[in-house]
Amino acid sequence: MENLCEICPRDCKVNRSKNLGYCRSSEKVKISMVMLHHFEEPIISGENETDNGSGTIFFSNCSLKCCYCQNSEISADGLGKEITIQKLAEIFKELEKKGAYNINLVTPTHFASQIIEALKIYKPNIPIVWNTSGYEKPETIKKLAGFVDVFLTDFKYFSPEIAEKYSRAKNYPEMCKASILEMRKIVPDDKIENGLMKSGLIVRHLVLPNQTNDSLNVIDWVNNNLGNKTYFSLMAQYVPMAKAKDYPEINRKIKPIEYKILIKKLNELNFTNAYLQDYDSANTAYTPNFANGKSIVEF
Predict the structure, then answer these.
(1) d(Cα 226, Cα 180) in Å, to the nearest integer?
(2) Phi/psi class of residue 53: alpha, beta or left (left: φ > 0; alpha: ψ in -120 to 50)?
(3) Using an 8 Å Cβ cutoff, are 161 and 214 in contact?
């Protein structure tokens, strides 16, 4: 029987050794950059640029492909290089040797099976971070138990209509919510040591222009289902990129009032572990240079 891909909610059911599905990935792992990253939440990458940083591996391609993606060079255009599972395991080891606080797997979903195999070869003695768009199947998340220590997940949309418009994924909200609950089961407690998360869950939400009500619904859901002690990152860094120009309502940065409304909501609900961003974070300077950037580990 053919091995047909059902790893993400797209359920393409293609044999990736012969054909490409929505994510445009073969069965071979493809990565674009390896770096010590300093611009994640402080409990992931440290407080300052002088800290060791998060050992970040950017995987090429994506199962979601948002129209405004800041990493569209790799997510949509597929910039990167194919490597073996053995090489991926070696990269884990190299990042650990360089003092990385964790292994940060960025947009890993479509390579979940290969990542698990690499972690069977070498599981570092530092946390494994699953840094995801949130477009996951709970069945896939279950397979990560025992391999992943920290889930760093987006919760992009509450509305199926908005999810369909900007990411062509009407089932995003239901799949994201179900997967986040599964993540919480795998890591029921948040463990912080010396200011760094060793295991746990962080929920991120990128604020989009003109979508304040949807953002409020996301915050309410997190509060009602996970509680106000949840590590919640409210991101103001949106910059219209990629195909955002085709959608006039999101072809701008967010306004201060849009962010202030959401901060007020978090305060009213007494969120005690919320991360907020300055408005100057809406800057392309924080986007990695995938075309000309240099990885700290050769591959």
Answers:
(1) 9
(2) left
(3) no
Predicted pLDDT at 286: 67
Contact of 291 with 79, CB cutoff 8 Å: yes
Q: From CA 299, how far away is CA 58, in angstroms rounded? A: 12
How confident is the model over 183-242, as pLDDT tens digits? 999 999 999 999 999 999 999 999 999 999 999 999 999 999 999 999 999 999 999 999
For residue 279, CA distances in Å to 2, 208, 271 come to 50, 13, 20
Give the burial class of 3: count Cβ atoms within 10 A of its Cβ; 0-12 exposed, 13-18 middle, 19 or more buried. exposed
Two tokens, residue 147: 């391999």
Q: Give 165-191 pLDDT, tens digit per residue.
A: 999 999 999 999 999 999 999 999 999
Res 197: pLDDT: 98
Cα 130 to Cα 159: distance, rounded to the nearest angstrom = 24
- For residue 69, give the 3-state DSSP assignment: coil
Max Cα–Cα distance, the chain, nearest Å? 55
Summarised one tens digit per residue, pLDDT across range 134-172 is 999 999 999 999 999 999 999 999 999 999 999 999 999
Structural domains of the chain sorted by starting position, each given as residue range(s) with its CATH number in brackets: 29-286 (3.20.20.70)
Q: At how many degrees (to 10) do helices 172-186 and 212-225 cross?
A: 30
Dist CA 162 CA 217 (whole Å): 13
